[in-house]
Amino acid sequence: MARVTPDTVTLDAKSAAEWLRAFAAQVEDRAADLTDLDRPIGDSDHGVNLQRGMRAVVAALDEEAPSTPGAVLTKAGSTLVSTVGGASGPLFGTLLRRAGKSLGAATEVDQPALAAALRAGLEGVVSLGAAQVGDATLLDALAPAVEALEAGRPVSVAAAAAAEGAASTEPLVARKGRASYLGERGVGHRDPGAESIVLLFAALVRVSA
Fold it and tell me: Which residues are CB-contacts of 63 (< 8 A; sequence separation ≥ 6)?
């Protein structure tokens, strides 16, 4: 199970799966909101796509529970890539799959290892989408959350950093993705991918409590 001290969190296969199930539940609850965020600046499908993908992840974990946290994340990422179109499948799938591969075969991982894994996932997202922090993408939420974990801050602080980063996308002119086609007209709209990263870290807080 997940264990937490004031500064660190430790995950095993069971708690890693619980993390993804908690994320899936939050996506289920917020799918319509995420799609509403996507409507003015994207293809109006982010929420429904991520919902479909996380349902598939839960089904895959129900069918066969991996024995390590790395395998849990890798399986989830591969499932997202294979079942979800648009941007959300490849981006979130790459994040989780790269993170899982970084964790390797360890049966239990501490916060530094998890932070390093999420850094690897972040770098995979950068490589895939060629975006940077400040481009009004999910990286604006992911990067500060990962940095907080790398600094040994509590998971709740990382989640708060993700939320602040997602909010920061509202005044930005998007430079990547569909929203970039709108130029200044996209200002004032929060990036739905960044908001989904908020849900991912909120789910981590939930299983760490």
Answer: none
pLDDT of residue 146: 97
Ranges of residues in the chain with a pLDDT under 70 are: 1-8, 39-44, 171-189, 209
Q: What is the pLDDT of residue 12?
A: 96
What is the extent of the structural domain holding 186?
3-208
Give, to the nearest 10 degrees, the angle between helix 139-150 and helix 155-167.
160
Contacts of 47 (CB under 8 A, 6+ apart): 27, 30, 31, 32, 33, 34, 35, 36, 37, 38, 192
Number of domains in the chain: 1
Residue 202 structure tokens? 């909120």
pLDDT (0 to 100) of residue 134? 78
Helix or strand or coil: residue 54? helix
Report the C-alpha gap between 70 and 76 in whole angstroms. 10
Amino acid letter, residue 176:
K
List 11's β-bridge partners, or say none. 109
CATH code for position 130: 1.25.40.340
pLDDT of residue 47: 78
Write down the pTM of the prediction: 0.87
